[in-house]
Amino acid sequence: MLFQVKNLAEGATAIAAALRALDGQARVNSDLAAGQIDVTAQLTSEQVIAALRGAGHEAQRVSEPRQIHVSGGSDCCGSCS
Fold this sequence. Notes:
- This protein has 81 residues and is of the alpha+beta class.
- It has a single domain, classed as Alpha-Beta Plaits (2-Layer Sandwich), CATH 3.30.70.100.
- Helix content is 26%, strand content 22%.
- It has two helices and four strands, in the order E-H-E-E-H-E.
- A hairpin with a 4-residue loop joins strand 2 and strand 3 (36-40).
- The two termini are 32 Å apart.
- This is HMA domain-containing protein.
């Protein structure tokens, strides 16, 4: 799940710790320049946002990039026709 986080550079370590307190196996990858974190965890987006708020950061979920379906050996998504 991808989230936009205000003031991420000031609290990336605390954010990761807050999420790992809820899910010890959580993986958190931070992109400080973009102000985004990518979270892989057994948590809902609402739980992640609540944990971020608890750590003093406003956040919102960002839409994931759309995956193009590949089938039958073709990489055509079918939207051109």
